[in-house]
Design goal:
Blueprint (H helix, E strand, L loop, with lengths): L35 H12 L18 E7 L18 H4 L4 E3 L9 E3 L2 E6 L5 E6 L18 H14 L3 H4 L3 E6 L2 E5 L7 H5 L9 H7 L12 E7 L3 E6 L18 E7 L2 H10 L12 H10 L4 E15 L9 H10 L2 H7 L4 E3 L14 H7 L4 H10 L9 E6 L5 H12 L4 E6 L4 H7 L4 E6 L6 H5 L17 H12 L3 H18 L3 E12 L3 E2 L17 E2 L5
Parallel strand pairs: 1-10, 13-14, 13-15
Antiparallel strand pairs: 2-3, 4-5, 5-7, 6-7, 8-9, 9-10, 11-15, 11-16, 12-16, 17-18
Helix pairs in contact: 9-12, 16-17
Length: about 550
């Protein structure tokens, strides 16, 4: 949807286990390897609500069948996850990452082992030591031919990303060592509280060198270490995956996973086609953007056995205010805009398709303001808005006037509602629907005020509180410059203790409110459905990667 995608944020504190001694070049830890499985179990017990996960089924698993996933308005350009746009939709089923999102609930951002079976981090947060699984093999297809997965594969992938990959910015400053075939040590110049989450990003997968050497890239050949293998692929048409017969993990029936034989990912002509396909049972999961609330309600009414749920989008919709355009560098003007807006009315305009939000999206719920605080902080106060405007020199005879820009695909009824709300305090805004997305308008700096999704979608707190708000940050499109925010932003990015980090992030949000950096209003909700026959599939943020299919099954008798 935006430049940075969904990626998972990590509450690394429950998993950061000290092990390396301080030194200019820290050695590997001599201490015993931590019991990560126990740490994960304790973390899950503290956060998850056992027995209430919607995806769990008491029925016996059924084997066989083809899981069908439609992508309307998307593309399947190639299979190369290291070349933009990385096709994340099938990534975790074909490939694997060092770590992955645990996903015991929709907003779960804790990382759990994947190709890595455990890890340690040095006290200074600069050295990460990963112990790798020793039972993993590449798919038994030429030119890789089922050889063992080792630390050299991780090292080669890092070097490939540095040379030409789409994740160069993640890996550019990372160095690596392989003290043995199943240990890799990653060194970073500064502590990075989001480092583990970056390793778990959808397209941050480990790739085999043989494919690159023979085919020059990974666009037409997909060979990984995952539970499914690429059987057939046609550009911008479909991908067909088949179960990996050599997958080691066992199901509840004591036989190797996955239960499902095939996954078919195909493109739909448009949104209406996707709705129709779900209504007729032609798909088992709808696509990336989700359904609108009204369509979701109608689907549930007509197909009561569909398994529906909503996912909070990591994008804060609100008024993007350009601090570099007078008079919007004046915090009184920005606060007047905030106090003039009734966010609940905007939510009502979406008929249940959105929720209120502060400066961090509700999708990052471990760090975001709770909904009660958001409502209290952003309570409309028309008299206070008028006073702030008067203090800034604007009166009924000399009103504040500006152009309110929005993109062609944004909800125009939202913009018209906001226009009426701010008119009530004497502000005159002329709406301009641009011919490019509002995110493009904002990134160009060609605006005074824009109705837009604030910052690119991401589950890393530092993506929201780093380059998007630091002075001259690469994503600071509002031209914000606040020395206190710069200091706090840098501090939270390096704070490895999640409790301490949360304290700093709370201070950042308080300061952003004091300055009213922009006017957050809502998070949109994506409405999704599994087919009536889908059972046991874990949730994934915004359903981008189908990771839960490896333990799901299809039971037609449930329909």
């Amino acid at each position: 949807m935006f430049g940075w995608k969904l990626l998972f944020v990590s509450l690394v504190g429950g998993l950061l286990l000290a092990g390396c001694a301080k030194a200019p070049s820290p050695p590997l830890s001599p201490s015993p390897e931590p019991d990560l499985a126990k740490a994960q179990e304790q973390r899950q017990g503290a956060v998850c609500d056992p027995g209430k996960e919607h995806y769990r089924s008491s029925a016996a698993p059924v084997r066989g069948g083809t899981f069908k996933h439609m992508l309307a308005g998307s593309s399947l350009p190639h299979l190369d996850l290291s070349s933009p746009p990385g096709n994340v939709y099938i990534a975790p089923q074909v490939y694997r990452r060092l770590v992955s999102g645990r996903a015991c609930y929709y907003e779960d951002v804790v990382m759990e082992p994947d190709l890595a079976r455990s890890w340690q981090v040095s006290p200074d947060g600069r050295v990460w030591t990963f112990k790798l699984r020793e039972d993993v093999r590449w798919h038994n297809k030429p030119p890789v031919n089922g050889r063992p997965f080792t630390a050299d594969d991780v090292a080669w992938t890092i070097d490939h990303q540095k040379r030409e990959g789409g994740l160069q910015s993640y890996w550019a400053s990372v160095t690596h060592e392989q003290p043995d075939p199943y240990t890799i040590v990653l060194r970073i110049p500064d502590p990075d509280a989001d480092f583990l989450g970056k390793l778990g990003q959808n397209n941050n997968v480990i790739l085999p060198r043989e494919v690159k050497e023979q085919f020059k890239d990974f666009k037409s050949v997909g060979i990984g270490t995952g539970p499914f293998m690429v059987k057939e692929f046609k550009t911008d048409q479909f991908a067909l995956l088949e179960r990996n017969p050599d997958w080691k993990e066992l199901g509840e029936d004591g036989k190797p996973l996955p239960y499902i034989d095939n996954i078919q990912v195909f493109l739909g002509s448009d949104y209406a086609a996707e709705v129709a396909a779900m209504r007729t049972g032609a798909v088992d999961l709808n696509g990336v953007q989700g359904f609108r609330k009204l369509d979701a309600d109608l689907l549930k009414q007509s197909n009561p056995k569909l398994i529906g749920y909503s996912d909070t989008v990591a994008a804060v919709w609100g008024l993007h205010v350009n601090h570099g355009r007078p008079p919007f560098g004046d915090p009184r003007v920005r606060k007047a805009l905030a106090f003039a807006i009734n966010g609940d009315d905007v939510i009502d305009n979406h008929r249940g398709g959105a929720i209120r939000s502060g400066f961090l999206p509700a999708a990052i719920r471990d760090y975001a303001w709770p909904s009660e605080k958001v409502r209290e902080k952003f309570k409309p106060d028309l008299e206070q808005a008028k006073k702030l405007l008067a203090d800034a020199g604007y009166t009924p005879s000399k009103p504040l006037e500006f152009v309110l820009k929005s993109g062609p695909n944004e909800q125009q009824s939202d913009v018209e509602l906001l226009q009426k709300q701010i008119e009530a305090v004497g502000i005159r805004a002329r709406i301009s629907i641009e011919q490019v997305a509002s995110s493009v308008v904002v990134s160009r700096g060609d605006y005074e005020v824009a109705y837009n999704a604030i910052t690119p979608s991401s589950y890393f707190p530092d993506r929201w509180l780093g380059s998007a708000i630091r002075t001259k940050g690469s994503q600071n499109f509002i031209n914000l410059s606040d020395p206190k925010l710069d200091e706090l932003s840098t501090a939270q990015a390096k704070e490895m203790d999640p409790a301490k980090r949360k304290q700093i992030i709370d201070q950042i949000q308080d300061q952003m409110y004091e300055q009213m950096a922009y006017v957050p209003i809502m998070n949109r909700l994506y409405f999704r459905f599994y087919s009536c026959r889908t059972r046991g599939m874990k949730p994934t943020h915004q359903s981008l990667d189908l990771r839960g299919v490896d333990r799901a099954w299809l039971d037609q008798s449930a329909c």
